[in-house]
Amino acid sequence: MDALEFFEYVKGDRIDKDVFEKVNITWTRVKGGEKIQPLIQKVIQEFNEENPSASVPLLLEIRNQISRLENSVWRNRKLNEVEQLIRDCTGLYIEIIANHYMASPGQQVRLAFEVINRSGVVIMLDNLKSESLAIDSTFSLLLKNNDPVAFKSVKSIKSDKEYSSPYWLKEPHATGLFTVKDRTLIGKPENDPAIIVDARVSVQGVSMTVAVPVVYKWTDPVKGELTRPFEVVPPVFVNFPQTVFIFRDQTPQTISVLVKSASSQRLKGNVKLELPAGWTSSTQPASPTTLRR
Q1: Domains, the chain, ordered by start
Q2: CB contact at 8 A, 181 and 160
Q3: How much helix, strand and coil, in percent to the nearest 5, is found in the chain?
């Protein structure tokens, strides 16, 4: 059941229609933003649903005016938003798909790149760069209207790349209280993409960077095409088949261990239990076990 809440006038200037009617929330409150507000009104009035790319010249001018403002949180945020609008209006599509949903640091990953410009706007692909994959490729590729560009490449994840564990679990924590050293991460519902490729494009001569996450895509027989984030994980996972073992007396029990490889290469190793003080194990070290994903 819906319930209505009413504001009661207590003190200050009275309002007639809106609680924000006497609060300036336009671009005129920002130093140097007087030229931006008319451009925004114009691009809204002239927007054509059947030809969104016609708004790109005005959006580029809005971007130019915002970039001239003093550096601030709102300047950077609005700059990102107008660049997203430019990509949306041009139908610029950039996707990078990995051949598997996980890999370990130092391992190779096969990537499929696809770039499409779904408009008549002149767009150039200038550069692809990723520190995690040691990619730094320069192009001078004209993206023609609805002419997809696709290519594949095999790259190695840098050996010191962090694992894709939740950022709030990277440090020791108490019950319900987590330690996050990087305060910029606080409030994020999930991690940033494990691997990002920065694609630098030029839209009518204006350079901008598109952060493209590497993803994994597969086809489910019922749900159709599905996508999940690409993850950087340890080369080996070790788990017990059950979370609790109960010893009623000193009778020995057999403990099974599940070892799973996340590496595309063959791995060899031994499994040994680390027991608390006073506990012993009669298991002798077994011969090295060979694993592969």
Answers
A1: 27-90 (no CATH), 93-232 (2.60.40), 235-293 (no CATH)
A2: no
A3: 20, 30, 50
CA quadruple 219, 222, 227, 231: dihedral sign: negative
Token pair listed for 52: 């969104």
The β-bridge partners of 130 are 135
Q: What mean pLDDT do residues 265-272 have?
A: 80
Q: How far apart are CA 84 and CA 246, in angstroms?
A: 56
Tell whether the model's pLDDT for residue 232 goes beyond 80: yes
* Residue 142: strand pairing partners: 124
The strand pairing partners of 155, in sequence order, are: 109
- CA-based Rg of the chain, rounded to a whole angstrom? 27
C-alpha to C-alpha distance for 76 and 169, rounded to whole angstroms:
29
pTM above 0.85, yes or no: no
Nearest to 195 by CA among 109, 69, 77, 256: 109
If you average pLDDT over residues 100-117, what whole number do you get? 94
Contact 179, 114 (CB under 8 A): no
Q: What is the DSSP letter of 55?
A: G
Beta strand 93-98 pairing with 206-220 = parallel
Q: Where are the beta strands (DSSP E) in the chain?
A: 93-98, 102-103, 108-116, 123-130, 135-143, 149-156, 196-203, 206-220, 224-229, 231-232, 236-239, 258-261, 267-269, 289-291
Q: Residue 214 burial (CB < 10 Å; 0-12/13-18/19+)?
A: buried
d(CA 56, CA 289): 59
Average pLDDT on 261-285 reads 78
Answer whether 228's CB lies under 8 Å from 240's CB.
no
- Residue 73: how many other CB atoms lie within 10 Å: 7
